[in-house]
Amino acid sequence: MTRACKVALLGAECTGKSSLTTLLGLRLAPLRAATVGEYLREWCVQNGRTPQQHEQAQIAAEQAYRVAAAARRHPLVVADTTPLMTAFYSIHYFQDDSGLAAAVAEQRQFDLTLLCAPGGIPWQADGWIRESPAVRLQAHDELLALLQAQRLPFTLLSGPLDERAALAEMLIRSLPALRGAHASG
Fold it and tell me: Nearest CA to 92 among 14, 12, 184, 31?
């Protein structure tokens, strides 16, 4: 099997990443697409709290492991976040950039990065994991600046979920790495 085509969905809290991941998994199922959920959310639910600074590296490593495991079994992987989001939140909450270099290197291995913007996705409180619409906007601006500062290519997705899904699907289906995988597989 050739190298899997990997797509990353990044974005601040409550920007539609999980919903878009699920929708793309359904739309791209004929391509044997795998989806990888956000380990951070799973971790928070299991532990009943948000992680502390010393727990960030393990969360990033587990997210990377899950993406890599899916990529070994499927020609296409759509990941609801990557270690870059963990590094971003480490900077945002703890002023700790110790994981940034490794996360940027990992992000460069993705064929497509889609940045989910807040516009078009209504804010939904979920109890204690999400903070507020204001934090969502601030985090989006900071994440956008980080991607630009690190010269990481990305496509911005905004608008309603169905519009995001249509654009994302078109971009994914047009990836040269994906076309090559299906031509040989």
Answer: 12
Whole-number Å distance between alpha carbons of 130 and 109: 29
- Show the tokens assigned to 6: 């990997």
β-sheet with 112-116: strand ranges across = 33-36, 76-80, 5-11, 112-116, 155-157
Residue ranges of the chain whose pLDDT lies below 50: 183-185
Give the number of other Cβ atoms within 10 Å of residue 73's Cβ. Answer: 11
Q: Are 10 and 143 in contact (CB under 8 A)?
A: yes
Q: What does residue 90 show for φ and ψ, rounded to 5 degrees? A: -65, -40
Q: How far apart are CA 84 and CA 91, in angstroms?
A: 11
Cβ-proximal residues to 121 (8 Å cutoff; 6+ apart), any chain: 14, 15, 16, 160, 161
User: Which spans in the chain are helix H?
Assistant: 17-27, 39-47, 56-73, 83-94, 100-107, 133-149, 161-173, 176-184
Q: How far apart are CA 60 and CA 53, in angstroms?
A: 12
User: Cα separation of 168 and 183, whole Å?
Assistant: 21
pLDDT tens digits, residue range 114-164? 999 998 887 776 765 666 878 889 999 999 999 999 999 999 999 999 999
